[in-house]
Amino acid sequence: MLTTAQxxxxxxxxxxxxxxxxxxxxxxxxxIRITAAGAKSFVLNYRVAGxxxxxxxxxxxxxxxxxxxxxxxxxxxxxxQGEDPLAERIAEREAPTVKRLAERYxxxxxPKKRPGSARDDEAMLRGWILPALGxxxxxxxxxxxxxxxxxxxxxxxxxxxxxxVVGLLSKMFSLAVKWEYRPDNxxxxxxERNAExxxxxxxxxxxIARLSAAxxxxxxxxxxxxxxxxxxxxxxxxxxxxxxWEQFDLVAGTWLKPGSTTKQKTDHYVPLSAPALQLLSxxxxxxxxxxxxxxxxxxxxxxxxxxxxxxxxxxxxxLEDVHLHDLRHSFASVLVSSGASLPLIGALLGHSNPATTAxxxxxxxxxxxxxxxxxxxxxxxxxxxxxVVPLDRRARR
Length: 397
Fold this sequence. Notes:
Mean pLDDT: 85
Number of helices: 16
Largest sheet: 4 strands, antiparallel
CATH superfamily of the largest domain: Intergrase catalytic core
Shape: elongated
CATH architecture of the largest domain: Orthogonal Bundle
Strand order of the largest sheet: 1-2-3-4
Low-confidence stretches: 393-397
Strand content: 5-15%
Structural class: alpha+beta
Distance between the termini: 121 Å
């Protein structure tokens, strides 16, 4: 059997490596390997399904002879039960990391999402998920990892973003289960998400006028026109920026938003107002022949990004608390004030769920008050042409 003194006195070979085995009374296949450079490590040779395997237990600096021999005995018992310790180590070493899961998510799942949502997912992956979890094995990720990341993002003040990152991770790990990277989704129910308050910011008539004036003075009118179309249609940013001329019928006055660009992933027909048609007609008259996008990118490829323009325009208009998506809310508020019903508003905005449109129900307060006042005038006889309705039934006898 190998002894501590024998192991220490081993001399390195001229080239390659040399293994000295345990010998009589020791563990079959157990030995110590020494390289030409003098590095010593304990190994175990064994056979599985007729194939020779060699597993490295550890270096002499980390293991004593007795400890390494005991580990060799443990491994031998596993081998006798039909296990293959080396194969398990290889599988563990080659197990997918969160980075690999993210790469597959981008390759296979993102193409199914709307372009804007895909870009948002990629931003969350680059900004938060990969720096924090990218090198961890998918199988080793625990609920505490998600809680820690959520807390880190929340501390920056980005509470809603923290929730979105957790939502993305939950989807990724659901796919990890489908792709057999692990048997469960550790993100599901792992994090208490931050409370979210739906924004209820609507532009007043005066604010709309200030915004229109700022747009008129803006140096880049193509970007200004994209924001004007957002105001006139209530469409989402990506729907407008990625709009193609083939989607519009300027004679019939309609816009067909393809399902690939809408949140509901279904085609959505939108009637265009006279101002929207005039704007589009003017843009069309200035467009290059054969132009694909209504708002082409500045480099001549793809479509326009209006984020930078919006930041400048809203500052010039004194509307720094207004988000670009608030233009959509403002479109709905104008519809409400004109007496449009919630189903009609939902149809114009492309809502598939009535609950989504219901957020605007509180805006009906003024029209409802006006209607109630009208009834009150009729009942009391205070209206100019009101028909008096007696409240006492006996008065009608």
